[in-house]
Amino acid sequence: MKPRLFALLAFASLGLALARATPVKLAAPLAAQPFDLAEVRLGPGPFRDAMQRDRVYLLSLDPERLLHTFRLNVDLPSTAEPYGGWESPGVELRGHTLGHYLSACSLMYRSTGDDTFKQRVTTIVAELARCQAASPKAGFHEGYLSAFPESFFDRVETGKPVWAPWYTLHKIMAGLVDAYQLTGDKQALDILNGMAGWIKFRVGRLTHDQMQASLKTEFGGMNEVLANLYAITGNPDHLKLAEAFNQSAVFDPLAQGKDELNGLHANTQIPKMIGAARQFELTGDPRLHEIAETFWDRVALHRSYVIGGDSDSEHFFPVDDFADHLDAETTETCNTYNMLKLTRHLFEWDPQARTMDFYERALYNHILASQDPARGLFVYLMSLAPGHFKTYSTPENSFWCCVGTGMENHAKYGDTIFSHSADTLFVNLFIAADLDWRERHLTVHQETTFPDSDTTRLVFNCAAPTDLALRIRHPAWAARPLAITVNGQPVNVASKPSSYAELRRTWRDGDVVEVRFPMTLHTEDLPGDAHMVALLYGPIVLAGKLGSVDMPNPYTRDQLDQARFPDPVPPAFVTDRADWLRQVEMVSRSPLLFRTHDLAQPHDVLLAPFYKIQHERYTVYWRRLTPAAWTREQQAIATTEKQWTEARASAIDFVSAGDPVSEAAHHFTGTDTQTGALGERTWREAQKKGSFSYELDPKNAHALALVCAFGSRDRPNKFDVFVNDTKLAGPPLASDGPGDIQLVRYPIPSSVPGGGKPLTIRFQAENEWGAVTANVFGCALIASSP
Fold first, then answer.
1. Average pLDDT over residues 760-773
2. Band (15; pLDDT cuts 50, 70, 90)
3. Are 754 and 627 in contact (CB under 8 A)?
4. Residues 466-477: what's their mean pLDDT?
5. Which residue in 108, 398, 481, 743 has the most C-beta neighbors within 10 A?
6. Which helix (H) or strand (E) covers residue 343, if one does?
7. What does the mean pLDDT of the chain come to?
């Protein structure tokens, strides 16, 4: 693309460049500078497609509805219909989505030049200014702005339960920072200064210990957004406020190089580290560098699954326990959104390929994979449970945190493809894009269909010959040398995997660099478990396409609604060959597809890039068994099925859970419970505090036992089984049994009141977040052996 094609865009953004100028000089200068999003335009490919879907979704949302609770909070009139889900008027996190929406619209404007998004930003900012101005009359302190009352912060400060008001305030402020920096809206900065004054009032009243105690409630990236505000204003109060949100309990171990993350809510921690990274850049404090670096190393390189995501049920777990955390609640998408932001900081300090290797892995296999291609909607928890599926938000009744970050994710794909120093251009990602490097008066056109091809092509357009070092990432997954040509002539460039290949020369208009990457099929074990393996082609995680049998509608209001759906047991890789990867054959290069050959049992499978698999079941991690182990497993499954058949045949009474006829005959009652089918079996389970019960008739029999069929891969859940309100004792669930079911036998104590009356069998989930019963397929009341 010729430089003149960007001329109008460059002129239009001149005022924005001035708006983004800051009075604070970095104390830790960046070795690799990011390009302005306005200098990069995506070319054809999956990332531009994702951005276009995001554009359509953003325009489908009504700013009036997002502003509704802000207006009501300060007694301003609103006739808009409120959105649902986490934006419902009674939900304590209400208002967070508007902050994300401001960021997403600002990013989309900057990424595309579409003035529609700037207009939306301007409208929203003006209305937020009205709400802020009305706060004192509504009884709030000057400068306060949110969609909920200021009393929420009283609850934070006194240790009373409340759902993360500082977190929501961070999102609102981050949206305003983006509005100011990316669209040039000066009113956004006025609002921010007012909010910072209010924060100074709240925080200034607290002792250090009181402030640290208040940080036990999730507070998002308040230390980052206040540091960014300091960079804009130069006001030292803003930096002091940022530092007040540095949590000693988390920062101190990391500053000493210690990983004490087990059990912590994962995405509560990552924004704090971005704040530490930003403060390091502004202050040069090496302790903050160590905190951010240690955290990134431990999470990116030791606590992440193959797709680049981390955590289970939103929490970090011991690094040697991955085998116990392969379920439907893995890898919150917000975590990866924030890990990529942190990765960008580390790369800018020290442009090493290892950070971009992680960035690429997570970008393709988690972020790109998290968008619904049909409607542009979003995944919260990216399930890695073998045989499970992706669950998406609804358009107007979810608004989870990962909906908010999802809006942003797909609006800013141009932010890391290229980086630069004064005399160096870094090519970090192989994504079709056009770069306009205005300071150097050149453009670079990157043409590629990677990963459906193994080549990228860079075309230079220069106003004049330009001396420049071109550094092209040699990815860790490219085990052999890169094949590089300049204007069709091969060149020898020394590089090794996870490094940068450097071409330093005088570039002239029309120069063409072509790079071919040695992409190969390779594997990666589940950490700590060599019998669970994932397949990759280059950086692309491959997943098995397992169809949509017994899948529910994938759109849901609650992110956990379908996490408890049981899954059919997927095929296993059965081999004792050392070279078993030869049994995985490429069947198509574009689109990228593979098929196993005499490897998977009970049938071979088709494999595709994980980011392309939507609306069907899949497997990312595969069990690898020897033929002898496979035979033993099939025998164990047959034995369990035989025992279940015998239990039902000899049962005094039997109920098939989830079967409406059987349940009605046994006087089913329940709350917070759902049901479904897995093949010919029906099932039922209950969520937090929920329960369900049946009446089974002992028919005057004595010495009874209850045999229950649970899901074979239900991990130890937090629930109890009762008979007539007497809790039964039984063995714990195995969580890794073969087949579809596992059987648990509960002796019924002789003390349970009998008299020939029906017994009430109740399954009760505990009263805590994430507590659920197992999937119950059925219960057989049997005569117990003496």
1. 86
2. very low
3. no
4. 97
5. 108
6. helix 333-349
7. 94
What backbone torsions phi and psi does residue 247 show, to the nearest 5 degrees?
A: -90, 115
Using CA atoms, how far apart are residues 737 and 715, in angstroms rounded to an integer? 10
pLDDT for residue 713? 80
Report whether 166 contacts 114 (CB < 8 A).
no
Q: Tell me how far apart the 2 most distant CA atoms of the chain are, in Å.
A: 98
pLDDT reported for residue 564? 85
For the cut 60, the answer to whether the pLDDT of residue 1 exceeds it is no
**DSSP label at residue 366:** I
Q: 3-class secondary structure for 709-731?
A: EEECCCCCCCEEEEECCEECCCC
Exposed/middle/buried for residue 563 (C-beta within 10 Å: 0-12, 13-18, 19+): buried
Among 12, 55, 46, 107, residue whose Cα is nearest residue 436? 12
d(CA 517, CA 520): 9
DSSP 8-state class, residue 364: I
**What share of the chain has pLDDT > 70, as a percent?**
96
Q: Is residue 362's pLDDT more than 70?
A: yes
Helix, strand, coil tally for the chain in percent (to 5): 35, 25, 40
CA dist list (Å): 1 to 39, 309, 433, 435, 447: 12, 36, 10, 8, 11
**Long-range contacts, stretch 593-602, CB < 8 angstroms, 24+ apart:** 594/521, 594/535, 594/537, 594/542, 599/573, 599/574, 599/575, 600/544, 600/571, 600/572, 600/573, 600/574, 601/571, 601/572, 601/573, 601/574, 601/630, 602/571
Contact 541, 547 (CB under 8 A): no
Burial of 628 (0-12, 13-18, 19+ CB in 10 A): exposed
pLDDT in tens, 619-672: 999 999 999 999 999 999 999 999 999 999 999 999 999 999 999 999 999 999
Percent of the chain with pLDDT over 90: 88
Query: Which has the higher per-residue pLDDT, 133 or 735?
Result: 133
Q: Tokens in use for 477?
A: 């997954």
| Residue 703, pLDDT score | 80
Highest-confidence segment of 22-26, 410-414, 557-561, 566-570: 410-414
How far is the C-alpha of 159 from the C-alpha of 754, rounded, in Å? Answer: 48
Q: Is the peptide bond before 451 cis (omega within 30 degrees of 0)?
A: yes
- What distance in Å separates the CA atoms of residue 697 and residue 177, rounded to the nearest whole number? 66
Q: Are 714 and 775 in contact (CB under 8 A)?
A: yes
Task: Name 709's bridge partners.
Answer: 743, 778
- In this prediction, residue 131 carries a pLDDT of 98
Q: Which tokens sit at 137?
A: 């009359």
Q: Give CA–CA dist 651/646, Å, rounded.
A: 8
Using CA atoms, how far apart are residues 365 and 624, in angstroms rounded to an integer? 22
- Confidence class for position 9, pLDDT limits 50, 70, 90: very low
| Arithmetic mean of pLDDT, 590-594 | 96
Query: At a CB cut-off of 8 Å and minimum separation 6, what does 94 contact?
Result: 69, 86, 87, 88, 147, 148, 168
So what's the pLDDT on residue 715?
66
> For the chain, how big is the Rg over CA atoms in Å?
28
Please, which residues have CB within 8 angstroms of residue 251's CB and are 6 or more apart in sequence? 272, 276, 291
Instruction: Compute how many other C-beta atoms are within 10 angstroms of the C-beta atom of residue 75.
Output: 12
**Buried/exposed code over 265-274 (b: 16+ C-beta within 10 A; e: otherwise):** ebbbbbbbbb
Bridge partners of 585, per DSSP, are: 595
CB-side neighbour CA atoms (13 Å) of 653: 21
* C-beta separation of 384 from 307 below 8 A: yes
Under 8 Å between Cβ of 627 and 535:
no
Only one residue has tokens 């011991």, namely 318
Question: Model confidence at 266, in pLDDT bands (50, 70, 90)?
Answer: very high
